[in-house]
């Protein structure tokens, strides 16, 4: 059982002992810390927070604890109930709220839940803001409201529909062309809130929908991370139903994966690549992804005359660099699309609207679009080290050894070779180094990873 505290919120497994797991006491404590921080930040105003959740079994319990803690602080709550992460992000500025909380553990299994925290822009908190909240929680520095000053809870049910309309109204989403294409799309929403949002969006776009696991019961029928090894059923369904495309989302609907008409994975890394290809063809500009994302986005960006930059891993870092570089689209290689025309957050609904318009315009099969991009293959590994080893020094020595190559130390050590790259990141919770590699064949990516593991062991005298 686990409780992980970070600048982006608190995440853990339900049950067990306080401070070791995500118990009711921990949910109240961190909701109180966040609410107290918001009240300090907006001292002269009534404070309002938007709260939404995915369909996890623990969601209703955690939601009631969080909302009632906030009202106990004198904060008003806009209750979206079942929602998606990007929907809550959109609702915060539309409601002119001071912040938002999304109750979701994203792709983690059903025993997990989390409090993800947003600022008044509906964006994830900065590192400094998150650190302040952790400090308030540690000190239990709360002051609750007196009886006449308690906050109130207002239920609002329209935001998924509002989110869909915001997507449909985007200039680069052409509902008419999509409807005329006559697409059939199969959807696996892992029995969470994507089962509400994605079919609704598709039907609004005139698409015939074949649903798989779209009941928001929170009883995940398979591992909810949208990886190939978990998605055999949707791959089979695409072929059986003769669908043009398969769509897979994670429980909170910020990661998007496609299945080709042949029942094959499009590749999570290529979700962003394809959407960026379309956006850049209409609005030339710059792109951003994180250091562990595929080089294919760089290739597509340069094809359209734009500039590609890589940020440290983490959505907040991607968003910060996107703003600095005026990126027209960005995101993460795990299927996270960030399209600033709507908002600065990973959004599967935006990705669906953009990709279907692209597909309708191209008049190509999904597999043909995938084959039009350069193929890169990744290998993801880790090496365990003894606790007494200085991991930072090991990474420093690796960077020095490869100083003749293009080296970035923004987030661990990223070494760009002409035909492949290696990214080394240390864990903040255990003595391990994560090793990500990418090359033009799977064999080469695996080989490069093995070589780097051997190099690290040599440096560390293991």
Q: Can you identify the CATH class of the largest domain? A: Alpha Beta
Rg is 22 Å
N-to-C CA distance: 30 Å
The secondary structure category is alpha/beta
How much strand?
Answer: 15-25%
Domain tally: 3
Coarse shape = globular
Uncertain spans: none
What name is given to the CATH topology of the largest domain? Alpha-D-Glucose-1,6-Bisphosphate, Chain A, domain 3
- Please count the beta strands (DSSP E, at least 2 residues each): 20
Biggest sheet strand line-up: 1-2-6-5-3-4-7
Taking the sheet with the most strands, its summary is:
7 strands, mixed
Mean of residue pLDDT values: 95
GO molecular function: magnesium ion binding; phosphoglucosamine mutase activity; phosphomannomutase activity
EC number: 5.4.2.10
Domain Alpha-D-phosphohexomutase alpha/beta/alpha: 8-142, 172-263, 270-374
Cofactor: Mg(2+)
Notes on the structure:
With 462 residues, the protein is of the alpha/beta class. The chain has three domains: 3-157, Alpha-D-Glucose-1,6-Bisphosphate, Chain A, domain 3 (3-Layer(aba) Sandwich); 162-371, Alpha-D-Glucose-1,6-Bisphosphate, Chain A, domain 3 (3-Layer(aba) Sandwich), CATH 3.40.120; 377-460, 2-Layer Sandwich (TATA-Binding Protein), CATH 3.30.310.50. The chain has 15 helices and 20 strands. The chain has helices spanning 24-41, 59-72, 85-94, 127-139, 159-168, 175-181, 194-204, 232-240, 268-282, 296-303, 315-325, 348-362, 366-371, 391-401, 442-460, and strands at residues 3-6, 9-13, 48-53, 76-82, 99-103, 112-118, 153-155, 184-188, 208-212, 245-249, 256-259, 286-290, 308-311, 327-332, 336-338, 377-384, 406-408, 413-416, 421-426, 432-439. Helix 7 packs parallel to helix 12 and helix 9 (268-282) runs parallel beside helix 10. It is globular. The mean pLDDT is 95. GO terms for molecular function: magnesium ion binding; phosphoglucosamine mutase activity; phosphomannomutase activity. Pfam families: PGM_PMM_I, PGM_PMM_II, PGM_PMM_III, PGM_PMM_IV.
